[in-house]
Amino acid sequence: MLLEHRKAQNESAEEEQEFSEVFMKTLTYTNRFRKFKNKETISAVRSLLMQKKLHKFELASLANLCPETPEEAKSLIPRSELQGLWNQEQTLRGRGLREMVLLGLRLWRLARLWNLRGNGA
Questions:
Q1: Any idea where the RNA polymerase Rpb4/RPC9 core domain is (predicted)?
Q2: Does residue 121 belong to any structural domain of this protein?
Q3: Is residue 58 over pLDDT 70?
């Protein structure tokens, strides 16, 4: 999305500059392999991942790699919080943005209750 934004800015500028071959190849690659196609989905995923206070590298890894199972996620990032994230992600798949936000609020409340009871990591 950022690369597309940069390309659109350049196209709307008075003096359009030619992009480097590396930029164009990177743009092609990211368009081919990106998992999330619109800003709403990207925002929802980012919001969900940021609730767990993961390191920026961990956030980017989970968002880009989209592991299929908790075991796969734990092999990439060994944290106990990943099981909960995976369960949330599985529940959110196939739902609209509104439903995702509402479910996210419910999951956040459950996580708070879990942490208040002393069960959190």
A1: 1-108
A2: no
A3: yes
